[in-house]
């Protein structure tokens, strides 16, 4: 049905179950589909030529807008909390307060740096941020078939929008839920807006944004893309969900985390820096054969 499902990066707990979901979504047609995707390390690459690529936070953390002292502090936070974020031996309940602590400390430091809105464009351009291979096909295909794409990110909304704009894929069918910066009249960062979104509270974020799901309530079939187990709750606001196909990018600590990813995601893509598998599935879902 979809030759790319035999790629070496593809792992599935239940290949027949995956085929059944895809067939049901294909039968229902593109007008019933919506895509919900995480941003960092899902739409963007985890690594390129063996080097880690930055998250939307890291784009700022590593930029010329941040003092050396603050860079060290942000790096210390990353070294302390990222291993906790991806630790398979801790429960989500254990991780929750620690994630709030990480995001709160990092955002406090960023605010202290008095970041200028007009320089975001420059730092994104100067960064090593990269979308996954063949990302253009993904965005163009969704736009062409009028399929809404919700990008649901615990990263920084202003930065991720700029990444998409510079890649010329910030298209009208895209909606973003994320942490947005609040600037003062002089265009200097003074706070972050609204409720904090971190890796493990996307369910709450989804429920807070009920209006979006209401607008597209006739789209009961979901293609969900994520790289963290926290991303699985991004579709919790969807009305009368019929079919959901969950695709998880397993980027880091592969052997340790594979069992839990196989249990939670229908398709697990191991160290795959491309959009080839989601693209092939979308091509099939929107085909008439
Ligand atoms: N100070 C921080 C906080 C979080 N991160 C990483 O960002 C990712 C969240 O964004 P998603 O688009 O993936 O929801 C998350 O995986 C954290 O590792 C960071 O780099 N710095
Ligand atoms: Mg992510």
UniProtKB/TrEMBL annotation:
EC number(s) reported in the record: 3.1.3.5
Question: What GO biological process terms are annotated to this protein in UniProt?
Answer: nucleotide metabolic process
- Superkingdom of the organism of origin: Eukaryota
Q: Which reaction does it catalyse?
A: CMP + H2O = cytidine + phosphate; N(7)-methyl-GMP + H2O = N(7)-methylguanosine + phosphate; a ribonucleoside 5'-phosphate + H2O = a ribonucleoside + phosphate
Where's it mainly located?
cytoplasm
Keywords recorded for this protein, A-Z? Cytoplasm, Hydrolase, Magnesium, Metal-binding, Nucleotide metabolism, Nucleotide-binding
UniProt keyword Transferase, yes or no: no
| Pfam families from the UniProt entry | UMPH-1 (PF05822)
Named from the GO MF annotations, one term is:
5'-nucleotidase activity
UniProt subcellular location? Cytoplasm
Do you know which InterPro entries this protein is assigned to?
HAD-like_sf, HAD_sf, Pyrimidine_nucleotidase_eu
Q: Which GO terms describe its cellular component?
A: cytoplasm
Family assignment from sequence similarity: Belongs to the pyrimidine 5'-nucleotidase family.
Q: What does this protein do?
A: Specifically hydrolyzes 7-methylguanosine monophosphate (m(7)GMP) to 7-methylguanosine and inorganic phosphate. The specific activity for m(7)GMP may protect cells against undesired salvage of m(7)GMP and its incorporation into nucleic acids. Also has weak activity for CMP. UMP and purine nucleotides are poor substrates.
> Subunit composition?
Monomer.
Protein name per UniProt? 5'-nucleotidase
Q: Which organism is it from?
A: Esox lucius
């Amino acid at each position: 049905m979809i030759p790319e499902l035999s790629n070496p990066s593809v792992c599935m707990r239940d290949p027949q179950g995956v085929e059944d979901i895809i067939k049901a979504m294909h039968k229902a047609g593109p007008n019933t589909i919506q895509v919900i995707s995480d941003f960092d390390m899902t739409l963007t690459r985890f690594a390129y030529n063996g080097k880690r690529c930055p998250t939307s936070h890291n784009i700022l953390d590593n930029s010329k807008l941040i003092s050396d002292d603050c860079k060290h502090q942000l790096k210390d936070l990353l070294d302390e909390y990222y291993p906790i974020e991806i630790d398979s031996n801790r429960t989500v309940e254990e991780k929750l307060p620690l994630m709030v602590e990480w995001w709160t400390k990092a955002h406090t430091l960023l605010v202290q740096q008095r970041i200028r809105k007009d320089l975001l464009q420059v730092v994104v351009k100067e960064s090593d941020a990269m979308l996954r291979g063949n990302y253009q096909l993904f965005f163009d295909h969704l736009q062409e078939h009028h399929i809404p794409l919700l990008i649901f990110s615990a990263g920084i909304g202003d930065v991720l929008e700029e990444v998409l704009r510079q890649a010329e894929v910030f298209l009208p069918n895209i909606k973003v839920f994320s942490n947005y910066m609040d600037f003062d009249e002089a265009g200097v960062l003074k706070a972050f807006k609204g409720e904090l979104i971190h890796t493990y509270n996307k369910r709450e974020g989804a429920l807070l944004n009920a209006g979006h799901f209401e607008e597209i309530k006739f789209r009961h079939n979901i293609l969900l893309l994520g790289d963290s187990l926290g991303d699985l709750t991004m579709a919790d606001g969807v009305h009368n969900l019929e079919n959901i196909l969950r695709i998880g990018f397993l980027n880091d600590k592969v052997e340790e985390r594979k069992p839990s990813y196989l249990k939670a995601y229908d398709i697990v893509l191991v160290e795959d820096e491309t959009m080839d598998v989601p693209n092939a599935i979308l091509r099939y879902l929107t085909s008439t054969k």
